[in-house]
Specification:
Chain B: It comes from Massariosphaeria phaeospora. Chain B: InterPro entries: Glyco_trans_34, Nucleotide-diphossugar_trans. Chain B: Pfam families: Glyco_transf_34. The complex is a heterodimer of chains A (about 450) and B (about 325). Chain A is an alpha/beta fold and about 450 residues long. Chain A has a domain of about 290 residues: Spore Coat Polysaccharide Biosynthesis Protein SpsA, Chain A, CATH 3.90.550. In chain A, about 45% of the residues lie in helices and about 10% in strands. Chain A has 18 helices and ten strands. In chain A, the strands form two sheets. In chain A, strands 1, 2, 3, 5, 6, 7, 8 and 9 form an eight-stranded mixed β-sheet that branches. A two-stranded antiparallel sheet of chain A has the order 4-10. In chain A, a hairpin with a 2-residue loop joins β6 and β7. In chain A, α7 runs parallel beside α17 and α8 packs antiparallel against α12. The N and C termini of chain A lie far apart (about 105 Å). In chain A, about 30% of the residues are buried. By secondary structure, chain B is an alpha/beta fold. Chain B has one domain: Spore Coat Polysaccharide Biosynthesis Protein SpsA, Chain A (Alpha-Beta Complex), CATH 3.90.550. Chain B contains twelve helices and nine strands. In chain B, α3 links the parallel β1 and β2. Chain B is elongated, with a radius of gyration of 37 Å. Chain B starts with about 25 loop residues before the first helix and ends with a helix. The chains are: A alpha/beta (about 450), B alpha/beta (about 325). Chains A and B meet through α1, α5, α6, α11 and α12 of A and α2, α4, α7, α8 and α9 of B.
């Protein structure tokens, strides 16, 4: 051959079956071939079949290739209930022993109830699927379901870090635990989680607003999640002990019961309440505002020293816009920034006392509901029933407030994480732990016995 | 040609038409379920399942109940608009000449009567000012007027140094009606003259304005301003009256406090409209008037004898000729 052309024949590829067959050279008219594709007549299908042979596998796959496909019949004939068996009934053959017969009867009953049983199985399967797949999150997020997208958790990370202080491995670990804890919680209930970097930045030329960034952060979150209603601020040193509590069930569905608007119920700052100035309107003079839950725009816990903004809630509203706007004011800052060492917290306490419009829209929440303290904060014993975490009563949240001053944040975080995991074991884990614990216990007691014997002998 | 037998079948049979193979092979039992008559059953079952879940509601959700605490007092916001449209508020210095204060009161009352408005007079000593200058009293006084007249919409604070000179002008139609306010508003104007970087917003809607102020030569004037009753007004007045501003010793007490909150807090600036000074606050014979539109002319609604209550000046004496003009006009009618 002169040239190594890729085509098998001069004249290029021809579409088989459509034009004249290959062997038609030299003939004026195409030869009439046999039906069903005789050797000269190349149809599309036969070409495909031939190429399939070359390729080593067939273009079609036979059925019943799987194990069940091949053996189903065999297995099914061996099953105790089969129609084939029925015919043989009572023909004087061996019926199997009584156990087999009961099995057969049960099987037959199951078969008869296959529809309803199938429905039950389907139900169970869908429940499992609902909780195993992200479906439950989608459901809990939607406004028809749980309404989880109405809640945003703002987690302040890296507090005081940045230019002021380098983080060590412990700080990183604390942050990792804390973030993971909130991430899981937000995922579980379909909330949004906004992690913000609170490291000290010289963002403002005059350095005034340094570390007064709560307000800006909340405003940004409100802009970022335009459909959310409640924003939950959390400090880094917090841990959600009971992830099975949803915010809705724990707080917002029964806001009237878990919150108090009259600060006289628990008043560590001794704020005079209600206001008595004659020029104010009746709603503001009333100790509980208008008394409706939908007028609560801010939910704040109080610890032994007053308001605590380590864990608090604000609702999106015009009132909140105004509060966020007036919260930081240069005149107030200039006069008070030396005195207000807790910054926003002190400013809020001040405004609560001095600007009447704020009072009628702030409600307080019992501290242990959202912000329980470990021993060491507000009393070293940790036995104040208003303030300190109670394992037995399964408090929702722990805030290791002030652990960076003279306490060990990492140890506390680790301890509460372990405790939370132990409290929230599932039944299977509980069972395993029970067994391992009892074995351990037995071994120890045996050792003691042996020791006792040895002691006696010697 | 005849053949006894049909042509022999080819030894290479044509392959079967390929089955349409989807990547997932559905077992026949499931396929049976997905048939049309069964599909309905499946869909109804799934729907029923979710309805059950929703009914039980134990996977989180639902709205909060709305019970009212005992002692809760309903907000009076809903009453706004049921009373007279405008209340004129004036703070009287209790040490001033009683004959003059009577004339000032009468000036307001006659105007209010003519247009169906109300007046509210307060003593500067009525409010807990805690050692701050008595000029602060106007802020709680307006708040007080709102408490007393929850049904009224606008509260017009007018200093005792000012006189209503043209009673025939209805302030509601003249200034407050949205269509009118839209024309009067000065937008994009520095709040503090001449060149403060904070300017009044340029995209203001007249029906969303909550406070109307004027600007004299020095800055925002507090002799005559109008605020709309509502939640915003409470916020505005309470924030303005915050002791932290009173103790700060602004050069001119409440005036600088107002300029301060307007310039630093966007939620206040966004509700503020500035109108030309002679609309509600023209100064008579004062070099402190706004250079463009600050001086009182005949026929204006208000003449303000700004500063006549300070130092050795006497408001009664300065206002005497104007009282005379008012009397004359009344007698003509």
């Amino acid at each position: 051959m002169a040239s190594r052309s890729p085509s098998p024949r001069p004249g290029g590829w021809s579409s088989p079956g459509l034009n004249s067959p290959y062997d038609a050279s030299g003939r004026a008219s195409p030869m009439r071939g046999y039906a069903n594709g005789a050797s000269q007549n190349v149809t599309w299908a036969s070409a495909q079949a031939r190429s399939a042979e070359v390729k080593g596998y067939t273009a079609f796959s036979p059925r019943n290739q799987g194990f069940f496909g091949r053996h189903f019949r065999k297995i099914s004939t061996q099953l105790p209930f089969s129609y084939a068996e029925k015919e043989k009934l009572g023909r004087g053959r061996y019926q199997g022993n009584k156990v087999m017969q009961t099995f057969k009867r049960i099987g037959r009953n199951f078969w008869r109830l296959r529809r309803s049983l199938g429905l039950v199985l389907l139900l169970i399967l869908s429940v499992i699927l609902f909780y195993v797949t992200p479906l439950h999150r989608v459901y809990r997020r939607s406004s028809l379901g749980g309404g989880g997208k109405k809640y945003v958790i703002i987690l302040a990370a890296n507090q005081g870090g940045g230019v002021m202080e380098w983080k060590g491995p412990r700080e990183w670990a604390i942050e990792r635990y804390s973030v993971k804890n909130k991430k899981n919680y937000a995922n579980k209930w379909g909330y949004d989680l906004e992690i913000v970097d609170m490291s000290t930045k010289k963002r403002y030329a005059h350095e005034w607003r340094e570390s007064w960034e709560k307000v800006d952060t909340i405003k940004n979150a409100m802009r970022k999640y335009p459909h959310a209603e409640w924003f939950w601020w959390l400090d880094t040193n917090t841990f959600i002990m009971e992830p099975s509590y949803s915010l809705q069930n724990h707080l917002f569905k029964r806001l009237q019961d878990v919150s108090y608007r009259d600060i006289r119920e628990y008043n560590p700052l001794n704020i005079s309440h209600p206001l008595t100035d004659e020029y104010l309107d009746a709603e503001i003079l009333s100790p509980v505002g208008d008394g409706k839950t939908n007028s609560i725009n801010m939910l704040v816990p109080q610890d032994c020293g007053g308001f605590n903004l380590g864990s608090f809630f604000v609702r999106r509203s015009v009132w909140t816009d105004r509060l966020l706007d007036i919260w930081w004011d240069p005149v107030a800052y200039e006069q008070k920034h030396m005195e207000w060492e807790h910054k926003e917290q002190d400013a809020l306490e001040y405004m609560y006392q001095n600007q009447p419009w704020i009072r009628s829209h702030v409600a307080f929440v019992q501290q242990r509901k959202v912000n329980a303290f470990p021993p060491g904060a507000c009393g070293d014993k940790g036995d104040d029933p208003n303030i300190h975490y109670h394992e037995k009563e399964r408090d929702f949240m722990v805030n290791m407030a002030g652990c960076e001053w003279g306490r060990d944040c990492w140890a506390e975080m680790y301890k509460y994480r372990q405790l939370s995991e132990r409290l929230n074991r599932n039944p299977w884990e509980r069972f395993k732990d029970l067994i391992s614990d009892s074995i351990k216990h037995r071994k120890e007691s045996k050792k003691k016995e042996e020791k006792g014997k040895k002691d006696k002998h010697s | 040609m005849h053949f006894a037998m049909p042509p022999r079948k080819t030894s290479r049979p044509p392959p079967y038409a390929a089955r349409n193979q989807s990547s997932v092979r559905i077992p026949p039992a499931l396929k049976n379920l997905l048939r049309r008559d069964k599909l309905r059953l499946v869909v109804v079952g799934a729907l029923g399942f979710f309805t059950l879940l929703w009914l039980f509601g134990w996977i989180g959700g639902g709205s909060s109940s709305n019970s009212v605490l005992p002692g809760g007092v309903a907000s009076t916001i809903s009453l706004i608009g049921t009373g007279p449209a405008v209340v004129i508020v004036t703070v009287i210095d209790p040490q001033a000449n009683p004959a003059w204060t009577e004339r000032i009161k009468k000036n307001r009352e006659e105007y209010a009567k003519k247009h169906g408005y109300l007046t509210f007079f307060a003593n500067a000593s009525d409010y807990p000012l805690r050692n701050s200058p008595p000029s602060w009293a106007k802020v709680p006084a307006v708040r007080h007027a709102m408490t007393r007249n929850p049904g009224s919409t606008f509260f017009w604070y007018l200093d005792s140094t000012a006189l209503i000179m043209n009673p025939s002008i209805d302030i509601h139609a003249h200034v407050l009606a949205p269509s009118r306010l839209e024309k009067l508003m000065i937008i994009n104007q520095p709040v503090v003259p001449p060149d403060s970087v904070i300017k009044t917003f340029s995209n203001l809607k007249p029906d969303r304005i909550d406070v109307i102020v004027t600007q004299d030569k020095d800055g925002l004037s507090q002799s005559s301003w109008i605020v709309r009753n509502g939640d915003w007004a409470r916020y505005f007045l309470d924030a303005w009256f915050d002791p932290i501003y009173r103790s700060y010793n602004f050069q001119k007490a409440e005036q600088h406090a107002l300029e301060h909150i307007v310039q630093w807090h966007g939620t206040i600036l966004a509700k503020l409209a500035m109108v030309s000074q002679d609309t509600i606050n023209g100064y008579h014979a004062s070099d402190l008037a706004n250079a463009n539109h600050g001086t009182y002319k005949d026929g204006d609604l208000v003449a303000n004898f700004y500063g006549c209550d300070r130092e050795k000046r006497s408001c009664a004496d300065e206002q005497q000729p104007f009282f005379a003009i008012l009397e004359e006009a009344k007698n003509k009618d």
